[in-house]
Design a protein that fits this description.
The chain has about 425 residues and is α/β, with parallel strands linked by helices. It is built from 13 helices and 15 strands. The strands form 3 sheets. It has a 7-stranded mixed sheet, sandwiched between helices. A 4-stranded mixed sheet has the order 1-2-3-13. A hairpin with a 2-residue loop joins β1 and β2. α3 runs antiparallel to α10 and α12 crosses α13. It is globular and about 55 Å long.
Length: about 425
Amino acid sequence: MTSKFTNAELNELKKRYVANGAATPTEHFVARAENAELWDEDGRRWIDFAGGIGVLNLGHRHPRIVKAVQEQLKCVMHTCTAVISYAPYVQLCQRLCEKVPVKGPERKAMLVNTGAEALENAVKIARAATGRSGVITFDGAFHGRTMLTLAMTGKVLPYKNDFGPMPGEVYRAPYPNPMHGISDEMALSALEKLFKTDIPAHRVAAIVIEPVQGEGGFYIASPAYLRALRELCDRHGILLIVDEVQSGFARTGKLFALEHSNIEADLLTTAKSLANGMPLSAVVGTAKVMDASGPGSLGGTYSGNPLSCAAALAVLDTIEEENILARSEQMGRLLAERFSVWEQRFKMVNYPRNLGAMAAFELLDTNGRPDAAMAQALCAKAREQGLILLSCGFYGNTIRILVPITAPSDVLEEGLSIIEQSLETLSVS
């Protein structure tokens, strides 16, 4: 397929017609993509270490997923499941209920479009099931850009800064983060203090946590903390909502990051790589909890679109049949080894960490403080050499790796070499 535009022509259209708040920072426009590589409108090749921000764990245009969407397109494109449903919706709910680590044995699921929608619906369900209204989230959390999920998100810039009062009954606690001085014990004590200072436990409907924070910096909650949090929720009749929007679907070496802790959620939300590029998200939970709200109370016009459901079913098959979990573990070991080398070579590189292929490291200045400017410079330097790389974190100084798990070894190595060369350049500048 030949494009009618150049990058420059499209950039002029973007400046004229796309709202600044929705525009991308780059002046390049992707024309085609394959696995972990992109080609822009001018024909330049890029290595993709962003994966649509965790959406493409199985890579761009995985043949099996493309075929599944094409086959579904021949049958039904849309009806709205609230009008008349279709097999892929029900089949996907069944597969998710069989695999998601939530309290059982009876489980149910519902499908929507985005991670934010999944979180909004999880909170609605929790409030209906408990008769309570309070919601507790964590510093550094990212749960979405709708008004309720903005209130739940624990980072002002760039998400909340200009949008006025946030919805009420959302409270915040410190995320367990020993790298920044918050031990598991301190984080648990802060929750108990919250019950005394802001909202009593008997008014809390849910505690919402990312087992590995995504936008917040790829910080990993320890299994011990998550088990203690599960016990705390059980003790107070609070529902535990686990947000696996970014950490789910093989990124951590398990289908879901929560599996590393051997506990179960009451409700679990997932999106992003659930359908590997097609818009889809899900809430899965204990059947009694999921059924707390009445008929017609959950869903939306496009929720669980047939094409997206077909893609998600193909994702689950591919993860199983192509041994993606083992590949994620293998990639994680390789990234950990390379990060360790960089930590030794470059004073700016600190706190490397990973859970499977969900991997990150931090950049610090000469005084040991978070260096967001250096993180921006590293991403820019990598972009000059054809690598798409993302920063994140509460302080904006974390470099995260979201390369497709299916990336060929030579492409992965090429991308890592670009990061290393960029670190070398920046370390002497």
